[in-house]
Specification:
16 strands; 18 helices; single chain
């Protein structure tokens, strides 16, 4: 199945269930200063989740362009993406038997099952399907309704769906189908610091059944890549709001799920909502029997271009390996950690790699150190980041790289891709060549990419050239720090090394010259190799010790945090408002912003672009160009 076929099938299915199909919203949120990008299909629908009436009705569905950077450091594995398309369907309002009215958990779960398992739709094997639900906490009770509805669906195919709770002493997941997990796993939202949120139920698919029964805990199988998440149904019953008007703690919006006791309260929404999301990239890979979200037609043209530019090859992820000794199936990450080896053998550490000399029951003389794994990770990062940058630049809002807000994220994506390109040996201006492949892939679905192609290419070339100049200046400044870098000979036992260079120095390089911390660490690693390490030979510690690398990073981020706090203090009191306030007057101003943009385009022309806005109960500010 192709991505276009999946997109069409999804929208066709929910249209048959009485849903109106709405277009994808802009990647740059309107009238919401609490987030930089549209992170989910529900994001543009927040006012309607809060009670405002949507002109298309209570049942909606679409394919939404999304950007998420919270997991940017995880990109490079087989499942994390910065840009992705989210297929979603929504119910705005209380359950009703009236066609076209709202629905809730029962219908959402039944339809999820029907679309996933139905032969005329995706036709997935129910024996390979696993689901999670919310286990409950002080804010809300266990989601027993979802458990009941899932058990009814599994029973249709003769599967007794037993429930395993996250705090259960049961180890392993054989015979379990439903996993009740804590809020960090199964409580979604809000998209910003405040707003609609609620428990969710996620669907996972076993992508490697040929490797034998699942043997370990749910989290371990998921982290190893054996179980791939393909869909998430969120039941938005609550509104997270600031308690008694007390401001949130600094940085709270970035905490997992934003569930900080004491600072916020969770109140029931006036209406029950359903918000679901299915990632096209992951799902299309699963449908085609792949274990890699990059192994599909949405990425291959870009990866092939990167192969051509670098002269290196992308290695598809290897399937889980079987240990001969006990016949236990363990994916590669477990082998690297020494799991399944009885007894576990000590690890020899070299840089970031963990190498287990597998002996009893192991894989013989298999050498798990593969240069290709780093190459594959770099290619994934480049493809992901350039795709994200291409869509951001192609958006109607006309965002460009800068040092603030969303523009800074865009700049970071481009420069991070360039940095990994250099690691692959690409020494020419190349990002625009990868972007051209992105445009070819998506131009029929998202016409704005073709329309804005020249702008996209010009901005990428301009930013890449600027970054290369920055790197040259930064390297010259780094050369001046060399006299400070005087590590004492390492003690093998104590692993204690004193440096004349600190994370503060690296932060100064970053803040003054824009020299990335990652590149500073690479230069330090190169320097480290030049010092006498005779006593380390054969012991696998000739590289910069991991503890020391982490110390540099801690110092750097501490300096960065102090800098950010000073900046925050300087601007305190200058800004307030946004949809963090969901009062009736604020929602009216939010609607007025939409009407204003439409009116301006009608009077002045379609070239009018909204550059920003700020909505409060007192006023509406509207920026345009």
């Amino acid at each position: 199945m192709t991505a276009n076929e999946l997109r069409s099938k999804y929208l066709e299915f929910f249209k048959s269930k009485g849903h109106a199909i709405i277009p994808s919203a802009s990647l740059i949120p309107e009238n919401d200063p609490t987030v930089l990008f549209t992170t989910a299909g529900m994001h543009p629908l927040v006012p309607y989740l809060m009670g405002e009436k949507h002109p298309a009705g209570q049942r909606l569905a679409n394919a939404q362009k999304c950007i998420r950077t919270s997991d940017i450091d995880e990109v490079g594995d087989n499942r994390h993406l910065t840009f992705f398309e989210m297929l979603g369907n929504w119910s705005l309002g209380d359950p009703s038997t009236t066609l076209g009215a709202g629905y809730f958990k029962k219908e959402a779960i039944e339809w999820s099952w029907e679309f996933l398992i139905g032969k005329e739709w995706l036709g997935l094997d129910p024996q390979r399907l696993y689901v999670t639900v919310f286990a409950g906490d002080e804010k809300a009770e266990e989601d027993k309704e979802s458990i009941k509805f899932w058990q009814e669906q599994f029973a249709k195919v003769g599967i007794a769906a037993k429930v395993c709770k996250f705090d259960s002493p049961v180890y392993g997941i054989i015979d379990y189908r439903i996993f009740a997990l804590p809020a960090k796993d199964n409580w979604w939202g809000p998209a910003g610091a405040t707003g609609p949120c609620g428990p969710c139920t996620e669907m996972f698919y076993d992508v490697a059944p040929e490797s034998g029964p699942l043997q370990r805990t749910f989290d371990e199988e998921m982290e190893a890549g054996r179980l791939m998440e393909i869909w998430n149904d969120v039941f938005m019953e609550f509104n997270k709001k600031i308690k008694n008007g007390v401001p949130a703690l600094a940085g709270d919006a970035s905490l997992p799920k934003g569930r900080t006791p004491g600072e916020y309260e969770y109140v029931k929404l006036a209406q029950q909502n359903v918000d679901t999301g299915m990632g096209i990239e992951r799902t299309i890979s699963v449908l085609n029997g792949k274990q890699d979200a990059f192994d599909n037609e949405l990425f291959w043209p870009m990866i092939q271009k990167i192969e051509e530019l670098s002269g290196k090859k992308y290695n598809s992820p290897r399937p889980p390996l079987k240990l001969r000794g006990g016949g236990i199936t363990l994916p590669l990450p477990s082998l690297l950690k020494g799991e399944g080896v009885n007894p576990p053998t000590p690890l020899c550490v070299r840089g970031e790699e963990e190498i287990t000399p597998l002996s009893k029951g192991g894989a013989g003389g298999l050498d798990l150190r593969k240069e290709g794994e780093n190459t594959t990770r770099a290619m994934r990062i480049i493809a992901d980041h350039i795709k994200a940058a291409t869509f951001i630049l192609g958006d109607e809002k006309g965002l460009t790289p800068s040092n603030v807000g969303a523009g800074y994220v865009l700049r970071r994506l481009i420069r991070r891709a360039v940095r990994y390109g250099k690691q692959l040996g690409i020494n020419e201006i190349f990002t625009f060549k990868v972007a051209e492949e992105v445009i070819k892939i998506y131009q029929e679905t998202y016409a704005e990419l073709k329309k804005n192609k020249d702008f996209i290419i010009n901005q990428l070339v301009k930013e890449e050239e600027k970054f290369l100049e920055t790197l040259e200046k930064g390297l010259k400044e780094f050369e001046k720090t060399k006299p400070k870098f005087t590590p004492s000979p390492p003690s093998i036992k104590a692993r204690s090394i004193e440096y004349g260079l600190s994370g503060d120095d690296l932060f100064n390089l970053y803040s003054t010259y824009g020299f990335p911390i990652e590149l500073s660490l690479e230069e330090i690693k190169k320097l480290y190799k030049t010092f006498n390490t005779e006593e380390c030979k054969g012991l696998g510690i000739a590289e910069l010790p991991k503890d020391d690398e982490e110390r540099f990073l801690r110092q750097f981020h501490e300096s960065l945090r102090k800098h950010q706090e000073l900046s925050r203090t300087a601007s305190a009191g200058m800004f307030k408002g946004g949809l963090a306030d969901a009062s009736e007057q604020t929602i009216k101003y939010h609607t007025a912003a939409h009407l204003m943009l439409a009116a301006l385009r009608q009077v002045l022309g379609e070239h009018v672009v909204q550059k920003g806005s700020n909505v409060t109960p007192e006023r509406l500010r509207f920026d345009l160009a």
